[in-house]
Amino acid sequence: MSHTYVHALYNDDDRLKEGATKVRGLGYSIKEVFSPFPVHGIDKIMGLNRTRISICCFIYGCTGFSLALWMISYMSVYDWPIDIGGKPNFTIYHNLPSWIPILFESTVLCSAHGMAITFLLRSWLLPGVSPKNPDPRTTDDHFLMVMPAYSEGDITKLTAAAKETGAVEIKTVHA
Amino acid sequence: MQHDSIIRDPLLLGKKTYHQITEDVARPVEGKANNYWWLMLAFAVVAWMWGIGCMSYTVGRGIGTWGLNRTIDWGWDITNFVWWIGIGHAGTLISAVLCLFRQRWRLTINRSAEAMTIFAVMCAAIFPVLHMGRPWLAYFVFPLPNQFGSLWVNFNSPLLWDVFAISTYFSVSVVFWYLGLIPDFAMIRDRAKIAGRKISYACYRVLSFGWSGRAKDWQRFEEVSLVLAGICTPLVFSVHSIVSSDFATGVVRGWHSTVYPPYFVAGAIFSGMAMVLTLVIVGRKVLNLEEYITIQHIDTMNKVMLTMGSVVGIAYFAEFFMAWFSGDPNESFIYLSWNNAIGPYGWAFWALIICNNLLPQILWSKRIRTNLYITFVMSIVINIGMWFERFDIIVTDLYRDYIPSDWTYYSPTWVEVGIFVGTIGMFFTFFLIFARVFPFIAQAELKTTLKATGDLFHNPPRKLKANGQASEGYEVKQPAH
Fold it and tell me: Does B460 sit behind a cis peptide bond, omega within 30 degrees of 0 on the bond before it?
């Protein structure tokens, strides 16, 4: 496993994308890109897979809906049906229309919170976690591309590619 | 890079760069508050404390301290509850609905509008809890087992729908707001690191959850934001529809109306947009953000307000017409009826019509829409009008009961007024603290559209003068031959 990385710092998102395209074209991989805002298209250039978090959201939503339906029908139909104003809770079917608001809210509650928690855990974003961006300017106006290098030749080629595409700072880091 | 139509004016003035946006957004957080801010905070805190005093008095003595009576058993409490909930709606409209419509002008106001939503819902929740009379038993609204001494909650009741709707709305809004804040907290954290401010760094390090801005994190962040916007859109419409069902499913003439859900949602957006305008007109000046929240933004918000005001106006007309057209003697005493207009609550009826229907008509003029002073006054007038709408719906539908011997009048006591003043104080206390501690503008999201909406990047110019020359300050790119 390589422990040498070339860090190329850009000050423009379009230059960063040019640089990333060039590096990928040369057959190298990009370990990470740190940017102050989402750079559209960089994930495809880096070869990242599409995120599946929206699928998780759908599953959480279905869970929320099912749990709410189970809860309401247990409480109102099976455990203690109440006859209110001549409108008894004796069947699920007859009550379903007036349960729609709570079924909907529970679906939204579970899908939104489930998705947010999944996002925070998958990206390991929790209070007290140390930030991993090597340069603090990457949350302001700089874009850092981290590329693993396996030999001196790699370092030379990657440095040249970064310089050519307008990187403002290039560093070799041994980690 | 995103592209925008060349006929649109730039939304971001002052030739901003990425770094300049960072500087401008971080300035209020890093700088010291001026005396005006402290003065406003002092007023807000005093009002809030006064409200807490009145709330304590209510809890200690019971709601007999209010002016409610046997006929009018909902008064200022539920009026204020619906008013605050309605105000909250513009925040979600701006952050979720306009996100789906890809309206870029929302980007500089969504953060403060979402904060407004959260604080408004917190204020709203106080009223129904106090109105229970025994607020220490408020947890009985949740589905608790029979062993607690009561039956299960009634899932067919709109009051229970409200519990679910408002708690979901509040918690999902907080999540949506906080997720958007994480990258901006990280920006302030890293600036504190560079400048060597240790306490600030320690605080924002915790608040930013260790955000680093990795490509995969951004990819997930964008997906989460989009999906949350998608599910918040029906949520926001459902919440005020459910609040309106508290009335619409009741057997009280004037309340028992199928038009209520859309009518309440339109009214909510109308009043919420007015509150956003009140806040950002002051905020842009105090925080030096005039180049971000431009006159164009104010104009656009005024247009939304005018549209929603018109929808509400049509709903009023329909209610008034149907009350008359039905020929039902009960209907002829509802809140929008001639009998109410000339009755003892006529002043409330006319306050509603003047503030919500007549005065907003001046917004048809672009000159008025782009005038900050008039817009500011109008935003307050509309909020007063929307308060009266809820007051009229509740009180003037109740005070003419089915039995004429029950007809009566209602005036609030100082305790009810104090609680309302207290919630306004609480709202502004939170908002003022928010404006100093949190990034007022969603800078990370704004930076994604800088090249599409910033005037530095407008080349060729968005607007040509009649003589074909570029407007002042823009370069004209010569066409390639």
Answer: yes
